[in-house]
Amino acid sequence: MAIDSSAVGRVYPPQPYEVSREKVREFAEAIGDTNPVYVDVEAAKEASHDDVVAPPTFVMIPVMRGFDILMEDLGIEYARVVHVDQYFNYSRPLVVGDRLETTTTLDAIRQVAGNDLLTIRNDVHDAARAHVCTAQATLLIRPEENGDG
Amino acid sequence: MADLAVGQVVADREYRITRENLVRYAGASGDFNPIHWNDRVARAVGLPGVLAHGMLTMALAGRLLTDWAGDPGAVVEYSVRFSRPVVVPDDDHGVAVQVSATVTEVRDDGLVAVDLAVKVDDQKVLTQARALARPPKTDGGS
């Protein structure tokens, strides 16, 4: 069943996210990135950051929390979701200690070959309400069925 | 400003993705979609097998970018299209992903536009993989 097109334009409540030292370390290790600015305060300061910074795609963690509330609202299970594209635009890198808020907007729904294509925007701000990152994604939602073929 | 020319390949590297990497990335990112760790679920939804998280492939291509630029703060824009699924076999070798970065524009404001070619078995798994970044300082770095 197609997703209700009246959901377009829906803005979901801002989701808080605090960037923690150990999560940044864990993420950098998971992507195999040994850049010291992800784990070592001194190295980060030498690169003129206030503290340890996160790899660019780390911001997907708070962005996913925005996806979660949207998926729940629209009744979509992740096993039906295919990530089609992802865009990020940064004002600055994420820094350990950042208390972020991510606002998620459903910008568009299109139907293509029986699937729904959602365009989702996530605006990430810091505690001072300054812009940190804007993300935009297209997600393809497969129809509900028992797809053995 | 860095002496960069359009068409110049500024970095290239091979990365490997194994099932272990997928488990680690799932935990680190919080993306527990079972198509990234459960063959049974992946096949039930019509996929050839367990797939790498698109965001993990994007992160690896991002590594090439930040290693070249020298700092994650140098990345101003980064976008990809996940054009082909990366199937990760259940063995010790995993799958090899080739990434290379080519300059497409040197802008007046000092930013450099880069195209990333991201391939498995000579086929692009990401298309329209592009970034806008501050180039590395030309202070004798590699």
Automatic annotation (TrEMBL), chain A:
Q: Tell me, what is one Gene Ontology molecular-function annotation carried by this entry?
A: (3R)-hydroxyacyl-[acyl-carrier-protein] dehydratase activity
> Might you name a Gene Ontology BP term for this protein?
fatty acid biosynthetic process
Q: Which SUPFAM superfamilies match?
A: Thioesterase/thiol ester dehydrase-isomerase
* Pfam families listed in its UniProt record: FAS1_DH_region
Q: Where is the FAS1-like dehydratase domain?
A: 6-134
Q: What InterPro entries does the record point to?
A: FAS1-like_DH_region, HadA-like, HotDog_dom_sf, UPF0336/Enoyl-CoA_hydratase
Origin: domain of life: Bacteria
HAMAP family in the record, alphabetically? UPF0336 (MF_00799)
Q: Family assignment?
A: Belongs to the UPF0336 family.
UniProt name for this protein: UPF0336 protein G1H10_08840
> Which organism does this sequence originate in?
Phytoactinopolyspora halotolerans
From TrEMBL, chain B:
Q: Which superkingdom is the protein from?
A: Bacteria
Any one Pfam family match given in the protein's UniProt record, by short name: MaoC_dehydratas
What Gene3D superfamilies does the record point to? Hotdog Thioesterase (3.10.129.10)
Q: Please, one GO biological process term?
A: fatty acid biosynthetic process
List residues of the MaoC-like domain.
Answer: 8-113
- Name the Gene Ontology molecular function terms of this record: fatty acid synthase activity
State a GO cellular component annotated for this protein: fatty acid synthase complex
Annotated InterPro entries: Fatty_acid_synthase, HotDog_dom_sf, MaoC-like_dom
Q: Which protein family is named in the record?
A: Belongs to the enoyl-CoA hydratase/isomerase family.
Q: What is this protein called?
A: MaoC family dehydratase
